[in-house]
Specification:
The protein has helices at 5-55, 57-77. It has 82 residues and is mainly alpha-helical. The longest helix is centred in the middle third of the chain and has 51 residues, at 5-55.
């Protein structure tokens, strides 16, 4: 059986739309897992920093002072209050 041209175009359009939905779904999944990975990595980094600060308290004090100084520089650029 030969399909009319309109049916062939409709099938192609449906396949095209399905591909777009698959691409969108895949992009949304990738975005979700990237954000989840980032959240987990930040959590791990925070735990490692706490452990390092517990082991080397002298270095931790100097590091906190340096971080505060850098933050104050950034805040100062934009006229923001502490």
């Amino acid at each position: 059986a030969v399909r009319p041209a309109a049916q062939v175009r409709a099938v192609g359009a449906i396949r095209f739309k399905t591909d777009n939905f698959d691409d969108r779904r895949s992009a949304l999944e990738n975005s979700y897992f990237n954000k989840e990975d980032e959240r987990l990595m930040r959590s791990l980094l925070k735990k490692l920093k706490v452990q390092a600060d517990d082991v080397d308290t002298h270095r931790a004090k100097g590091q906190r002072k340096a971080e505060k100084s850098h933050l104050l520089e950034i805040v100062g650029k934009y006229g923001m209050s502490q």
